User: What shape does this take?
Amino acid sequence: MYQLRRAINSDVESLVPLLLSSAPRALPRLFDEPPSYTAKDYLTYALSRLEGQFGYGNHWVIAQDGQAVAIACSWVSDPPQDFVSSTFDSLVSCYSGAQLSRVVQRCQALGGVFPKPQGHELCVGHVAVNALHRRQGLASELLDHFQAMGRELDKTALTLDVEAGNHVAIDCYLKYGFVHTSSHNDDSELALGHYDHLRKAL
Assistant: This one.
């Protein structure tokens, strides 16, 4: 039996591979700093914290027998200052010196790649479902949750970005009611490829 709930600290071991699978191109390019750290190292630490963009408290999961098998999170155009400072603190706790500078520069470059949510939008991200649990409606259940959250926050739309070649995910979102609004290619140093921006009115 599946259970939708907010992530907890004991979920970290199962959350890390899920989170990495949600953005397999972007996350390593952001957080790999060989030979000292990999994206997996950073996310394992960040997910063990309650606060921040990658903190477990910012994520919702669907669990089966206590094991997280699906994950997603959301954010808005102007996140609270403690959210921003907690995210930065997690970076400072893992990286130092030139490594920290490079990671921060890449994160800033990423900010120019994807459309920033407008004030009336709730952006959904980090969506992933364990391969053994796909085609069970879990992604739709997570989207149902964020749709309800968006309405509670008086938002008028959900938005998300997905790699243009991820046809399975795009088909899922279109069936859910998202529509394609724009496409963009990442010309930054990250070279993340081609993405579609999708939107669903609430």
